[in-house]
Structure formats: structure tokens, C-alpha cells
Known about the structure:
Distance between the termini of chain C: 25 Å
Mean pLDDT of chain A: 86
Helix content of chain A: 25-40%
Helix content of chain C: 55-70%
Structural class of chain C: alpha/beta
Number of helices of chain A: 20
Mean pLDDT of chain C: 88
Radius of gyration of chain C: 28 Å
Radius of gyration of chain A: 24 Å
Oligomer: heterotrimer
Largest sheet of chain A: 6 strands, mixed
Distance between the termini of chain A: 70 Å
Number of strands of chain C: 5
Low-confidence stretches of chain C: none
Number of strands of chain A: 22
Amino acid sequence: MERPALDRISVSIRSGMITGLVGPDGAGKTTLIRLMAGLLLPTKGQISILGLNTEKDAERLHEITGYMPQKFGLYEDLTVLENLDLYADLHDLSEEEKTVEFERMLKFTTLKPFIHRLAGNLSGGMKQKLGLACSLLGHPKVLLLDEPSVGVDPLSRRELWKMVQELADQGITIVWSTSYLDEADKCHDVLLLNEGALLFHGSPKELSKRVEGRVFQLEVPLEKRRMLLKDVLNHPETTDAIIQGNRIHLVSTSSFSVDLKGFQWTSIPPRFEDAFVDILGGSPKGESVLAKHISQKTSEGQHPIQAEHLTKRFGNFIAARNISFSIGRGEVFGLLGPNGAGKSTIFKMLCGLLQPTEGKALVSGFDLKTASSEARSRIGYMAQKFSLYGALSVQENLNFFSGIYGLQGTFRQRKMDHMITIFDLSPYLESNADLLPLGYKQRLALACAVMHEPDVLFLDEPTSGVDPITRREFWNHINEMAEKGVTIMVTTHFMEEAEYCDRIALIYQGINIAAGTPDHLIESVKTKDLPYPTLEDAFITLIEEINGQEKEKGRA
Amino acid sequence: MKSSFSFRRFWAYFKKEEKQILRDPSTFLIAFILPLLMIFIYGYGVSLDADKIPLGLLLEDTSPTARSLENAFLGTPYFNVTTSTHRSSIEDELTAGRLRGIVTIPLNFSQNFLRNVKTPLQVLLDGSEPNTARFVLNYAQGVVSNWNAQQKIEGKSFFTSPIRAEPRTWFNEELKSRDVLLPGSIAIIMTLIGTLLTALVVAREWERGTMEVMMSTPIQIREMLFAKLIPYFFLGLGSMTLCVSLSILLFNVPFRGSYLVLLLATSIFLLASLGLGLFISSTTRNQFVASQISIMTGFLPAFMLSGFIFEIPSMPQSIQALTYLFPARYFVTILQTSFLSGTIWELVLPSMAFMLIIAFFFLSLTALKMVKRLD
Amino acid sequence: MSMHSFKDGWFRIKALIIKEILAVWRDKKSRIVLIAPPLIQLIIFSHAATLDVINISLGIYNQDNGWYSHELIQRVKGSPYFKYIYEFKNPADVKRAIDTQDVILSLQFQPHFSRLIASGQTAPLQIVLDGRKSNASQIVMGYINSILQTFNTDVLKYKGVQVPEPIEIAYRSFFNPNIDYIYYTVPCIVAILSMVLALMVTAMSVSRERENGTFDQLLVSPLQPWQILIGKMLPAMIISIGESTLLMIAALILFDVPFKGSIVSLYISMIVFLFSMVGVGLFISSISQTQQQSILGTFVFMTPTMLLSGYATPIENMPHWLQPFTNLLPIKHFFIIIKGIFLKNMPAAEVFMHTWPMALIALFTLSLAGWMFKKRME
């Protein structure tokens, strides 16, 4: 018999608090939330919410709960306002309440200028926000949110958090499932699930205590950081290590890490994520077998990706305006920006999915839109949403992608065998790709994108919704590929992911508003009030500056 | 403990459904453009009435008697006669499908006839078109018996034929197939709107994840079902009005029944179709599968098993039994009767009752099957 | 194009073809949908879709008690076409039976029917037909006429009247000796189901990839648009040819239908026919945003096509201005070919006569699909 999705969970959730639901992929978070929403019935046991049994009192339960599924289904052929209207009516809001609530929701979601736009035409993040707004209507007493912030930009995430906090202050109970552990850190309580079992229930601070005194950081030269990280990760006393701009963040097995690598480590207070990775057995080691099988890229041409005055118009709307940059060989380049700022448009123009209205996008010197298939065979692409053939097995997907990229004969077989070993796919070879656990889907998608040894790799929000451990493993591969000279372009909302980038371009309203190394961006927003800004702070400050300037202009 | 039906929630969901219908060009295509196309094709083009069937006449005998028989064939409106004296060339035309039959007037035809020797007239038919073959045979028989009768009158022995058939056709004096096919085609259009369209829109809500959210809101299943039923119900009625008015006004199909009865019957039929559509979508959440099942259980039976073109009594018993399960059978009967003969209660009432049973069956099954849960 | 790049291109297309076929075949539901329903439909509809008129219900209202009416009724009862015979006592019963469609026609003998005949006069036989069944009524009237004709002659002979021997018709039906309807429906249903499947397989293939996001994967790959198009077209062809073969085998096993012609001619024309349908399907697919639109678009194409194809209603019966347009429908030509090959041993030259129009249409629909495909990619 298969392992149950949830195994004998007993827990009570405090009312008026925000309870974070965390755990690696496949831990059973979504199942638990659906059970609470009364959408699934427990095989054994029972759940009651404010005294209402999810089975017997489902009808009344739905009146007092708000639920937002992972993939919130908006009616894409209705406008923003019509979607809100529908949910307001379903929750029986009065006209006055509607006016107040809509005002509030539109402000937080910054969707006000778009109220008459069809939901289907919103960007991914905006859809997410609208979905959340819809589930918040109707004064729920209990709010069940399944990964509400996946794909939402840091600015909106902050707004979202503020709102939820306010709701909690009003006495509303909130269950929030998330893979952003900085969010979990701010929760009153967390439930940590692993493989259907409850590993921890308590305040995040309490969990963080287990790694107290074992967390360190170290400033390193920018160009050496990836090599160093690998060494640190391979050290037997390392539990977890990640790159944060020009620092390495380390969790060791003991507090004697001072002489690790002979560097001078500074002890810092633990974060929730450190404890999370620790309790789940630590991060994967730093070796990437993948990179071993990739040949070193010789340096023909120094700038594999070049954007020259890229502009894209959709009717009157300018999605990208005069964007220029060039990315060097072996560089990891991050494209950041709020939802709907135009980063997807730029990304798509670079990989040839959209034709620029003006300007040129060159990859290895070729314009992809017009280039021969040979030019396109030099790039690898991994879409935001899992988009391999779900009905095909893992092996068949590998066969297919190696086939369309023209790999042949024994070389093809060898490549596929490598991918299977590297990503540990052999137990799943015959399963349908759709049925894989999320982490394995991610691996398969990466395998299919790199099998033909591309010079350039395009990653569109590669780890959104993926748990921290899988994310570390993923970045180990990326880091080493960059070391081998593969040029990598990545879009992301994850600041942790952005920290891995060599350079970042911040896109807002279709314009490149800031560019540089992560530390450079952080440095640029340092003030007396904010002496130690994070990358997220930098992101938000830079965007708010633009908003401020616009207001000025508006006044003038 | 059931809380009461909330008109507001119903209305909200109803408005949503209405906007989606109005905004999707494909709904409009199915509800109005396709019916228009079908009505025009049935009105102007398609018909079961054979006239001017291409017929070959092989004249091996060229005597005046044979010529008079030839003239009898040339004189009917049913045939488009090509006369030939070469057997081989004319038979090739039959094989190629350019002729539907060949009448051979044999070499010694007039000799035998005048000597009163039994003379068979050979007719070759193209059996690959059985219906046309039947018509050729019937019409040829008609031509020959008329000719026979004339010979008797012109001949020496003067006598009267013992029986004279006096056929009278009720309801459709000229036996125009158009007047029968046009009303029948309405059943097919209603099935498309009722079954296929509803099955698709519900499956789409599952695929896009909107259904999961709906399940977690206070909306009740019955509110949702009503809000789904009513807009498609009215869409169906709208399409119906279009079809009926065009049939009557443009194509002069008589309407002898009562509009009220037709409205009632259409309503019941739509309920049954919608019930089937909703039921299909409650069993599958995939648009491809939903469309296939709707075609199999809705569209094709409405076309093939409703008696609209193909006679139910001519089918094998087992398939005849099967036809009772499909509401289209009853609706086609009511439609053809309402248009051509008026309201015949003995026919209309049982048909309505059967449709009502089917509607009730599917709707209650759907209501039972749909629970506000994902599994 | 050099040999190497040709081989390379083919290799990539092969990967696409395998993927496409696996995507249909691996999913249990779509596998079932491809096999079970067509077979069930073949069986049911081949029996149901008949314009044969048999098992007729007939009413008799006999006000005459004489020998002649009795004898005529016996002859009608002896005919194989009439199955149920009801005797009515008054005109109201006749009306009700016709109204409620219990009988399709009623024979009415007036009180002096036999006496009139015996006295050498002509006796009228009133026949009421149900006009709601326009086709069946005409055929039934044909049956009655031929019974009457023989009866008339026999009566005259019996009475010793010197009658010229009437001309009788001896028919011989080519290709289908008993004018059996199933000979016609089976090949036609095979053609219809082949068309439906070819359309369904292709119409959703692009829109589904668009909805799932896999289409972008293809666009960023080294594949050229024409390779993607061929990669969509060939698998659809393979699946459709397989389906048609399955249906034909089933038709020959399950039904007593001859197969007289050349299998090679049939396959060549079938491939051309399926290409034209795949072209239509791909065109619908490339203009649709969603799967729903593909399905409904297919219907909008399929319904008028079926009506004008000459299947249920002969093309000869259509008005003259409309008839040339039916040549634009590939299935019209394929109906002629498939029936010709099953029943007639149609010569290759004749098959070719109907194949080239289909080839022309296929060329048109495929280029249209290709053009739309390229346009939508930019």
C-alpha cells in the first residue's frame, strides 16, 4: 500500500493567529488545507473548525471560511471588477460593504487601473493577487491560503503580509501554506510537515533555536564565491550553505566552525530557514554531477546574450521600452521586477518567443526569431509552469527532447543515461511526467533543457513553489554550469535566488531602472534609517522611488 | 440542516454565466450560426425527394411500340433519360455512378407484345445507392403500368381496370421532404446547445480550477445548477425561435399546431438535454472526453436514432428499443406533428411524459452526484 | 538541402511523431475514446441508418364483405414488407391511428367494393398516407401499387377478359443484388467515422499544447515551423489510417458486405482523403485559442459537410446551383470511391477521377493550415 498523504495528524490551531504550513514538496500541505476547507474528507479522524465539523456542517463552514487554492481559478473571460463582484455576491456583501472592500482590495492589489481588463489578460502575479482578493471578500472568520504568494513580487508580498496581519489582528484565524520561509518566520506558529507526518508545531523562533550558535557568514570575493560555496558544502561539518551576494551563509553541524576553510566566519542569529533545512537533514552536497558531463565552453564571442534597444508595443501599451544590456560568458544574469513590469516580455523576446517592435535581441550573435535552427539548438529553455508532456513517461520525454535537439546514436543514449543518473530519475522512468512529485518534475525539466549542452540557458522563475532543499540542489547545478561557461538568464521573484546572480537588472514599467551586482543594488539604497538593507529592501526602495517621482510629476 | 436557497448567490452566478456566453464567440457560433447554416441547407439544398434521376434507356428495338414506351419514360418528371443503343457504353456509365438505372427495351419487344407473349422489361439498378434504386424501380413501375393501361384503352379489347388506387396524403399533400426535415433538424440543434455546450462549460470550470474555488464558497449545488441551466435554457429557446421563424417565414413550412405546446415541449426537451450535459460533466472533468461522450450520447443519436431521417420501425428490434432512451426521438415526433398536423394529444402527451422522465432522471442524478467536494 | 541536413531534419520530425502518437496512446481514456466508440457506432449506426422501409404498420378499414377485398387483403398480408396489420371499424379509428403514427397508411374499402368489381366497373380503393413520413410514404405507396397491378391483371384473367399481357418489370440490381441497405451504410459509416476521428485528433492537438504551455517548448527548440507542422500532420495521418483500417476490418468481419475492388486504390485515395481532413483539422486548431473553440469549430465544419455530402440525401436531389459546390467536400468524393471499391470493383481510372479533386483540396487545406500556423507563430 502507498504511504498515506497525511498520517495521523493531531493538532489544534490557535484562533486569531497566523499559522504557517511548511514542509518539502509532497509533504501533504495541500491535502491538509483541502481537508480543512471541507473539499476532501479524512479517511480516518475528523476536523472541526470553530466547532463545525467539515463533513456534517460543510454548508455553514463555507460561509465562515475563505479558501484560496494553489492555482486560483479566475474566470478569465470576466473583468477584474466582475470577478470581484461575483465573489462579493456569493458572500452576500451589502452594497456599502462592497464599495469599502473593493476600494481596499484594489489598493492592495494595485489593480485599480485595470478593473475593466479581462482577468485572462493579467500577468501571472496580478492574477494571483486578484485571486487572493476574491477569497478575502466576505469577512471570513478562518482564512485558508495555499501558497498565496507564489509568483507574487516582493512588493506585493509585503502588502499581502500587512493585510493578513491586519486580519489576524481583527481576530481572524489564518492558515498559510508557503515555501517562502521568510514568511513562515513571521508567522505566530508553524506546522512543519514531512512525508505526511507532523515534524514540528510551535513558534518559528522555537524551531530556530535548534541551530542557534551554528549560523555564520563570510564575505568572499565575488568571482570566487561559487567555487568556495562548493568547497564549503563538501565540508563534512556543513549542514547548509548558500550564496548571499558577496557573502556565504553557513549552518554547521557544531559551533566549532570557526576554522572551517581557514576563513574568518562571523556568527549571526539564525533564521527559520536554517532550522528548516537542518531538521530535514541538511542541504545536498555541492558536487554537481551534471556539470562534470558538460564540456567547458570555449570563449568564442564574449557576450552570448545581447539586448539592443529592445522595445515591445501591444497596441498603445508599451511593455518594454528601450532595453539594452549584454551578458558575458558564464555569467548568471537575473531579471527582476514587480508583476506586470515587463520582464516576461523581455525574456520572451530574448529567447525568440516574441518579436521585438524595435531593437534587436541577439543570442550568440544570432537573432533567434530569424535564425537558423542551429542557433536555436544552442539555447536551453525552462518554462515557468511545468510544461513537459504530462501524458508521456519520463523516458519518453527524454527521448523526445533529445530527438528534437538532434542528438543521435550512441551520443544520444549516453546523454540520456547521464541525465537519468545525475537527476536520479531511474525509479520514475516509466511514470507519467504529470504524476511526478514537484521536485522531480523540476529535475526532469532541467534535464530536458540541458541535455544538448546549450551555451545559453533561459530559466523563467525556475524554482517558484519549490521547497528550499530542492532549490539548493537546483542552484548547485546552475552554479557549476556557469563555472563551465554556460551563460544563464533567469527571471525570479525569490530574493534568495537573485542573490545567486552575478548581475541583476530591475525592470519596472517596461524600463530598466537599475542594474548591477546584488551588492551594488543593496549598497545604493543604504541610508541612516536602513543601515543593513536586504536585497528585498533594495528592490522595494528602488521601485518606490520611481513611484514617488511619478507622484511629484503628477503634482507638478 | 439545509439553509435556504439564496437568490442573490444564484443571480451572481447566473450573471457570470451569461457574460461568459456573450463573450465567447464559439457559443454564439453554435447557438446561432450553425442553426442558420443547417436551416438554409435543409431549406434550399437537401431533400429526399428524387426527381430527375439520371436513367439510361437502352433501345434494342426501335419499332413504334418501343418508341411509345420510350416516350412514356421521357415524359415523366422523375427521370432524366439518356437513350442509347449500345449496351457496353451505357453500362459503364452505371458503374461510374453517372446513371442510377438502365431500362432495356429488348430486341423482340414489340413483336412479343403484339403477339401477347409475356415480355419482361429489364431494369438494371445501381445497388450501391439503395434508396435511389428503390425509387427508380417504383417510378419505372409507375411509368409501365400507366403505359399498360393506355395500351389497353387504345387496344381492341375495351375494358376497365378493376381497382383504381386513390391515394391521399395527409398533413403533407405534396410529400415534400423539406417540410419534414426542417422541423426535425431543430432537435439536433437543441441537442448541441443542451448537451455539448453544457458538458463543455462545466468541464472547463474543472480544468481551469474555478470549480474548486466555487466549492469552497457558500454557494449551494442547487443554486449553481439552476444558474447553469437557465442561461443555456434561454439560449436554446432563442435558437429555437430563430429556427422556427425561419422555417415558417422563409421556407413556408406550414405550422398547424400550437406554439404554446411547442414551447412546452421544447422546454422539456431542453431540460432533458441539459440534464444529460450536466450529468456528463459531473462524471468527467476533461473537455476532450466530455465532448466525445456528448457526441456519442447526444448528437449522433439525435441524428441517427430519432426517426428524423431514418425510419425507426425499419431498424432491428434491439436498436428500436435503444431509441426509446433518447429524448430526441420524442422531440422529433412532436416537432413534425406540430408543424404538419396540429396538436395530437395522444402523441404529444406520452412523448412529453417520456422526455420529462428522462429530464428528471438526469437532473436528479446530477444533483445527487454533485457534492461540494473534490473526490 | 544536403543529404546530411535532410537526414537530420527527418530525425527531429521522427521524435515529434513518436511523441504525438504516445501522447494519444499512453493515456488510457483517450485510447478508449479512439477505439470503443467508433466500433460501437459502426455497429449501431450501420443498422440504424437505413432508408429501407420494412416492418410497416398498416391499417385496414373494410366496409365491404366481398371476396375481392378479402383476397386483396390476403395479398397485402402476404407481402414481406407489412408486419403489423390493424383492422379498423370506423373512420375515427383510422384518423386516430394515422395521427398517433400507429400506422403509416390505411386502406379503405367502400361498402360496394366487391360488387363494383364483379359488375365490371372500377372500384376505388382509398389510401391514406402519413405525410410526416414523406420518404417512407412514397416507398410504401410503391409497394401497394405493385401489389395492385398484379391483382388487377389476375382479376381480369380470372374473369376471362382478353387482356394484353402487360409489360412486367424484371429488375436486376448491380453490385447489391437484393438492394440491401447495409451494403450502402457500412462503407459510408466507415468513411464518416474516419473523417470524424481525423478531425478530432488534429483539431485539438495544437490548442491543447497551447493550453499546456508545451507549444512554447517547441518554438524555442531548433525545430522549424514546417517541421512542427509535419510533426503534427504525419502522426495524425498514422493514427487516422490505423483507425480507418480497424473500422474496415471490423466492417468486413461484422457485416456481410463484399469487398470487390483493389485495396491499393482504396488506400491511396483514403490517404489523400485523410490528408485533406487533417488539413482542415490543423486549420481549426491553429485559429482556436482554446480546446473548447476547437471542438465547436469542428462541429461547425462537420455538420454542414455531412448534410451536403450526399450520404443521407442524394446530391442529385439538390438544386442545380448547389450541386457543383458539393465537389468541394472531400467526403463526397470519398463516399463514391469507398462504395465503388467495396461494391463495384471500380476501375483505377475512375478512382483517380475522384482522387485528384481530393488531392487539390488537401493541398489547399494543408497550405492554409501551414500559412495560419506560421502567422500565429509570429
